[in-house]
């Protein structure tokens, strides 16, 4: 299976994976994915506030935007969701646990020390000033990760994502609970193409999978690791880091 090709222009990386029906758009370490399904597409992790502009060309080719989905509520995964959804009149779906944060529940988030531990991933992709600026400004637009808790300025989400559910608008994908990095983390699994969209549960560095050390709960992270490694993943698409493709499984070689 052809993994695809990457095109870099104005620091925006566009990684086309036609055999998987996926396009990755990345600024620095912030990945956003377009999953083509049926007569349209689903966007996953529209994290930067201005990501709608970056997605215009890819969505123009894909057709109708069926839904905007996030793997968890951190601002770098949801700050662009409301604008994108409004522009295309598409529903937003967040993990069910994230919905509780919209109602005032206090989310746990990794400490700055934990966040700094993923520095190998931070230096593994080209630095992009718009990506950095979007990360900083996005924290005040939507999502959590600051002492302010969960922010949300867009319309109410269409619903919550739960374990085992088909992804709205892309029924070939299944929601998998992937807590540890946060208490509301999910991953998305496509058994037909053996593709895992891992959110922040699994990062990548230098062509290797890396179960994130940036966690809030060690027991949940260990359970997530065990569950995900039971999946025969040939294509790993992380929230941060470059995609990893393997003839057999991406777990055969991973960062320890």
Description of the molecule:
With 256 residues, this protein is α+β, with helices and mostly antiparallel strands. The protein has helices at residues 51-62, 75-78, 81-88, 96-102, 112-116, 119-122, 129-138, 218-229; strands at residues 5-9, 12-17, 22-27, 30-37, 40-44, 64-69, 92-95, 159-161, 166-167, 170-177, 186-190, 195-199, 202-205, 208-211, 235-238, 244-245. The protein is built from 8 helices and 16 strands. The strands form 3 sheets. An 8-stranded mixed beta sheet has the order 1-2-3-4-5-6-7-8. It is globular and about 40 Å long.
Keywords:
256 residues; alpha+beta; Metallo-beta-lactamase, Chain A; eight-stranded mixed β-sheet; six-stranded mixed β-sheet; 8 helices; disordered N terminus
